[in-house]
Amino acid sequence: MGIAWESVSKRYDDGxxxxxxxxxxxxxxxxxxxxxxxxxxxxxxxxxxxxxxxPNAGRVVIHGKDNHGMNPVALRxxxxxxxxxxxxxxxxxxxxxxxxxxxxxxMKRKEARAHALEVLDEVRLEExxxxxxxxxxxxxxxxxxxxxxxxxxxxxxxxxxxxxxAVDPIVRRGLQDELLRLQSExxxxxxxxxxxxxxxFYLGDHVALMRPGGTLAQFGTARELIDxxxxxxxxxxISAGCLRSELR
Length: 248
Ligand SMILES: Nc1ncnc2c1ncn2[C@@H]1O[C@H](COP(=O)(O)OP(=O)(O)OP(=O)(O)O)[C@@H](O)[C@H]1O
Ligand SMILES: [Mg+2]
Known about the structure:
Helix 4 (109-122) packs across helix 5. This protein has a single domain (3-86, 156-247), classed as P-loop containing nucleotide triphosphate hydrolases (Rossmann fold, 3-Layer(aba) Sandwich). It contains nine helices and ten strands. The N and C termini lie far apart (39 Å). The strands form two sheets. Strands 6-7-8-3-9-10 form a six-stranded mixed sheet, with helices on both faces. The protein is globular, with a radius of gyration of 18 Å. With 248 residues, the protein is α/β, with parallel strands linked by helices. Helix 6 (169-186) links the parallel strand 7 (157-161) and strand 8 (189-194). It has helices at 42-49, 72-78, 94-104, 109-122, 139-151, 169-186, 197-203, 222-227, 232-247, and strands at 3-11, 17-26, 31-35, 57-62, 65-66, 79-82, 157-161, 189-194, 206-211, 215-220. The mean pLDDT is 93. The structure holds adenosine-5'-triphosphate (ATP) and magnesium ion. One of its GO terms (molecular function) is ATP binding.
């Protein structure tokens, strides 16, 4: 159960190899942190899950089923997706942003809004912001609304693509702690993309470190990567991260 990427590769139409023969798993009810430098194929791997990207080779298996046979639209509605900067609809209020997917899934507007209020509370946002537009929120609030929006349809799977990158380090640590608290309560299968190894170690039950060129450098727990780095690339990537946190 959970998500399995089985020997997946993706070459885009212009010939760019984004992901090269990667196999890894995201265990059910756990957080997998997908980490690597810019262009190492993280977003491509993430988008293979909800079929925004189709692999050229290999397959993605979700809860035991090849996702290739699943309806892409239904799949996207059943999987929460948090984009960088929250990915909110600018001309809809906070409440309507959160209520959107439940309504697409057939909930009545009134019911969806009532549900959205509950989710707002779940991510510890004040009810008073419900009628604001995204541009009227702080960066941290926008990120929280993004998380609320992804959770509103109560998906088993939550895909998060560098969701906390755009905020300052203190707000960011707060959001990370919120996510850990939330995850201990809701136990979703989370795939969390970041380029920050410290964030990956902090949030991930497992960590997959990608190498430039879209190959997997190492998959394991933070402890395993730290104690038994697969090679000098892994070692260097980890020590660069630790150096950064000391400088902060
Ligand atoms: N639609 C596309 N067409 C062509 N090349 C693409 C496309 N999308 C991504 N790429 C290329 O594929 C490679 C991997 O991209 P991807 O977005 O998966 O990386 P990433 O690890 O998420 O990077 P970042 O940390 O910058 O978000 C990059 O070289 C990128 O330029
Ligand atoms: Mg990306």
